[in-house]
Amino acid sequence: MSDNGIGARVTRVEDKRFITGGGHYTDDLNRAGQTYAYFLRSPHAHANVKGIDASGALAMAGVHAVLTGDDLAADEIGPLPCGWMIHSKDGSPMVTPGHPVLAQGKVRYVGDPVAVVIADTLGLAKEAAEAVSVDYEELAPVIDLESAKTAALVHDEAAANTAFEWELGDKAATQAAFDSAHHVTTLELSNNRLVPNAIEPRAAVAEYDAGLDRYTLWTTSQNPHVARLVMSAFLNIAPEHKLRVIAPDVGGGFGSKIYVYPEETVCVWASRKVKRPIRWTADRTESFLTDAHARDHVTTAEMALDEKGKILGLRVKTLANVGGYMNLFASSVPTYLYATLLSGQYNIQNIYAEVDAIYTTTTPVDAYRGAGRPEATFVVERLMEVSAREMGIDPATLRKRNFIKSFPHQTPVIMAYDAGDFDAVINKALEIADYKGFGKRKRESAKKGKLRGIGFSNYIEACGIAPSQAVGSLGAGVGLWESAEVRVNPVGTVEILTGAHTHGQGHETTFAQLVVDRLGIPFENVSIVHGDTDKVQFGMGTYGSRSGPVGMSAISKALDKVIDKGKKIAAHLLEAAEADIEFADGNFTVSGTDKAIDWTSLALGAYVAHGFPPQEIEPGLKETSFYDPTNFTFPSGCHICEVEVDPDTGVTDIISWTAVDDFGVVINPMIVEGQVHGGIAQGVGQAMLECAHYDEDGQLLTGSYMDYTMPRADNLPSFKIGTTVTECPSNPIGMKGCGEAGAIGSPPALINAITDAIGSEDLAMPATSESVWQALQTSALKQAAE
Amino acid sequence: MPTVSMTVNGQAVSADVDARTLLVEYVREHLRLTGTHVGCDTSQCGACVVHLNGRAVKSCTTLAAQCEGAEVTTIEGLANGDDLHPMQEAFRENHGLQCGFCTPGMIMAAVDIVNRHGNDVDEQTIREELEGNLCRCTGYHNIVKSISAGAESMGS
To answer: Domain B3-77 falls in which CATH fold?
Structure first.
């Protein structure tokens, strides 16, 4: 292994600019003549818009425009699409009424944009917005998920507020498994609504160049090419060659910056109308109101077991809240990204899932770190822990008894796991967590008057999304390959153009490590180019832990082509047969001789083009690959959490956290550990701190950092991280992806630990001190103590 | 519009600004020092932390006019030329950042923590002192590690 190659803890290339204040985020950008957009938003959860009077605002000096849904309709802009078709169990397509870019006649959540004011300064735009009067006719809000089917209609087209009633698995076989069971564990679970909260708010700067008849949009996107595709193909903004989208440094995404939102769409469209650049940056409350929310399931989950604890069947009935509109990938999250993972790490022959997607007058819900897999893992791992407790079996033992032991393994819910070693993972985790010593530690806690608990979570997830044909057959409207271009310059330096986008993941470092490893050239001679549709031809972007297994695989394939062409050129330059040329450590050599040409000389030779016949070899050294994976990848792992609960207050301290993951081949352990740390923190946030609360009128009660509890440094311990490795056979690098695993695996570990400590399963997320205390009041443990 | 003058990163600066101009707007929009960020509206996230007369403040809730005559240091002024401040170096060495957006405020707060608690500041104190700085990427693990390491090198 070279010092900077695969497996090395290389410090990050991108850090220099970030630690010195030299980052280039969208809001840092200034354009000559720029104006400011401010969005007028619905204060009501559900209302008809009877009229908008902007005359007062338009009369103010410095106000350039007030634009509404009618103006967009006149230009035939929109509606915002959903890119994944789901069919209900009766075969009918999902009901997805249009999502107008600005409201047309009706608003469907608090924050739904109604109009935009464009003015010389932000302050003026805000003042002008106050002079716009909107005549609302309030309608009954639809907030409670469980009663939404019988509430007022959010969309006239969607009867019972239902977008689809979907199923997966064999209902009859699963029923038969339950009929023959020795034991059935049943849980009523909610998966709480979250707000993604990248610390950089969404932002856009848009400019129209009349001379070139071309738009440029700088925006906070995880996938600028997809943004351009949506704006071109679906929103009718401009054809792709007339629209450049740049996603510069982006301050975190976690899924929330995948989507094309109304605000950046309006900025691009309106920049031509006002003939001035337009900038917009969300304030934090706008982020809370309008960034796609996450999770929000209510589920009845059942597991059937035989007398030895062997799982016979698993069944779920889930209501998924999709909010006021079906967002870009919202339909895939509670279906194919959820129910396909309900087998967990276990050999379960019978699984049946039903999912109803329900409209409510709340912010649209879509993918957020993990997207469907955290919801599945919460179901499976709560069922495992509670089954173990109910049957009096050690929770680690019950899991081991049911592990899948041989691969490939076809689950009854589509996924074919390609590799893993779940025993190796849990055994390493048990050792790091000192599971054997838990009883002693529990007694010590008891002496201090504290309740100690331990909880497990063994997750598996499907990421590296995804094989295009496979997702196409499941309803996806796009292919999920990735592209790479390797440009070798005449001096031998290398530029990698990738369709992946880095917004914290460290691609500028890890992608370069792959190149260094393969080409044997100095680390500083490699640069990574991403995030600009004028530079990179196309790409699908970064989400679903795909940049490594898919994006780097594309780079690997393109590097293969570069090396192959290099061998052809070297054969001519060295006057040898191509079959005799070997490439290693940056040198092309003739096998069995000391004849060699180094990388730099070869690169120059490729461009000078004196030494090979042009009818046989084209000059230059540049290759492209579009890599389409053959399968999902399946990272797996085990989290063990240990907590102490104060029975008088319900205050829970996380005493220790162990996470052992199998991510396949790891490029940079330092970065991978960082991804796990961050994922766990988000999972802990979900499990004990975070929740988006609406009141009965549909007002978001948690609309700022004063109300929505973000994980802070003193809520968390330092984490104990380990890895095991089974190589992924489905891509050329053997890697599985690590971006979401922490957020997927961690919530059930924490809830399992707290419920173990307090002796009650009646505990919903987030397990705040108050809810832990409430659960303790009815717990048998408490009653026994008294 | 009032004229507000101060010293920012060792340089005397002056600008005519609206009386309501915040310090963060002054440095970002008038001085075009965009390393200081805005992540919230309520003084919770700490992406905007700068040093005002040697103490960490949240520049999103400080009026520029309050800083008349003051010494302000932003993230751009922390390094000594090409030599990084030990806290900047510690964040890089310990992978104390991912997306980088909270990082300037985090580093400015970290230096202030060490100034107030000393070079042997312990992990629990660091965690409690980070109450006013949010990070969504790192889970704080490597930020805490960075601050411990930076504290130590600031003393050597």
So the answer is: Ubiquitin-like (UB roll) (3.10.20)
Which chain A residues are Cβ-neighbours of B143 within 8 angstroms? 713
CATH of residue A44: 3.90.1170.50
Q: Give the domain CATH number at A488.
A: 3.30.365.10
> Which residues of chain B make contact with A21, given a CB cutoff of 8 A?
33-36, 74-76, 104
> Is A25–B101 a contact, with Cβ atoms under 8 angstroms apart?
yes
Indicate the CATH number for domain B86-154: 1.10.150.120
Q: What is the value of ipTM here, to two decimals?
A: 0.98
Q: How far is A667 from chain B (nearest CA, A)?
A: 15
Contacts of residue A236, defined as CB under 8 A and 6 or more positions apart, other chains included, come to: A75, A76, A77, A78
- pTM score, whole prediction: 0.97
Query: Which residue, among A257, A271, A268, has the nearest Cα to A224 in the 3D structure?
Result: A257
- Tens digits of per-residue pLDDT, A705-752? 999 999 999 999 999 999 999 999 999 999 999 999 999 999 999 999
Total number of domains constituting chain A: 3
pLDDT in tens, B65-95: 999 999 999 999 999 999 999 999 999 999 9
Interchain proximity B93–A11, CB inside 8 Å: yes
Residue A432 shares a structural domain with residue A578: no
Quick one: pLDDT band at residue B156, thresholds 50, 70, 90? confident
Inform me whether the C-beta atom of residue B146 falls under 8 Å from chain A C-beta atoms. Answer: no
B105 close to A (CB below 8 A)? no
Domain boundaries, chain B: 3-77, 86-154
Longest dimension (CA), chain A: 92
Do the Cβ atoms of B136 and A199 come closer than 8 Å? yes
Burial of A616 (C-beta count, 10 Å sphere; 0-12/13-18/19+): exposed
A367 shares a domain with A454: yes
Q: Name B49's bridge partners.
A: B58
A153 in a structural domain: no
Q: Are residues A408 and A381 in the same domain?
A: yes
Pairwise CA distance, residues A713 & B144, whole Å: 8
Interface test with A, best of B28, B36, B140, B147 (most A CBs within 10 A): B140
B13 interface with A at CB cutoff 8 Å: no
- Judged by a CB distance cut-off of 8 A, whether residue B35 touches chain A is yes
